[in-house]
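PROTEIN FOLDING TASK:
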Amino acid sequence: MRIRNQWKLVAVALVAIGVAAGCGGGDSESGGIGGRVEIDGSSTVAPLTILAAEEYQIVNNDARITVGISGTGGGFERFCRGETDLSNASRPIRDEEAAECASNGIELVEFRIATDALTVVVNPENDWVDCLTIDQLVTIWAPESEGTVGSWLDVDPSFPDEKLTLAGPGTDSGTFDYFTEVVNGVGGASRADYTASEDDNVIVQSVEGAVGGTGYFGFPYFAANPDVLKAISIDGGAGCVAPSIDTALTGEYSPLSRPLFLYASVESLQMPVVQEFMRFYLENEVELAEVALYVPLSEAQLGQAFATLEQALS
C-alpha cells in the first residue's frame, strides 16, 4: 500500500484544529468491518495515529475512528475510565495510572510504535544560538529560573539582552514529563511562567511571534514548520547534534530521543474493528512513520509488537 506523502502535513494541520479521523471518504477501495474506535492522548503521537486512521478508513469505509488530543496524561485518564479503546502516549504509563486502570477493570497492553527526536526550537531571527548544552537548557527551564532568568543574556554572557519568551507542552503532556525529567532531573519540575498548551501548534505560534522565543515539542511539528522555526542542536556531552530522523535512529541525538507508545484495552481488542485497525497500524508502521517523520520500528521491535498483539488476542 502506498501511503500519501501529503499526510505528513495534513495530519499536523488536523491536530491544529482539534480534528482527528472521522468518517471515511467516498474514495474507499472497499467496505469492511464496521464499528467505532475511540482514541485520545498525546499530541506528539496524534499525527501518526491520525495518518493510520485516515489510511485505514480508505480501505474500510465502515469504520469510524476518532482521535482526541488531551495530552498523554489526559488520555490515560480517559482510557482508565473506560472511555477510549486506544491511548496515544509519548511516555510509558506511570504506576499510579496503571493502578487506576486496574482498579477500574481495564487490562492494558503497551505497544511501542515509533521513535521521536524531541526538538528545541527558536525564532528564525535568532542568530546568536545554534546549539544549547543540557546545562543551558536547565538554566532556561529550571523551576528556580522563574523570575530570575528572563533574558538570553541570563542564559549565557555571549548571548544578547533579548527577552526570553518561553512556550512548551502543558503538564498533561508526556513530552513535558520526558523533557523535564531529562533536563531538570525530575519529571514535572519546570518553571511555570511560560505559554503552556497541549496543542503543539500554539507553541509554534508563540515561538514564531517573538524574536527571543523558544520552545520544545516532537520533531514532526518542527518539520511541518521549517520556514517559521529554527531547530537547535543539543550538546548532551558529546558535542552538538541536530535533531533528525537519522540522528534519532543512530542514538546520536541523546538524551532527547524517545520511544512513542500506543496503549490498548484488552477488552477493546476483542472488537473486530479494533483488532483490524491495530493489525493495519503495525503492518504499515514503517511507511506510516516515515511519512509522518518519525523513526520507524526496527525489525525486532516490530516483531515484538506483533507478538504482543497476538498474545493479547489469545
Observations:
- The mean pLDDT is 90.
- The radius of gyration is 20 Å.
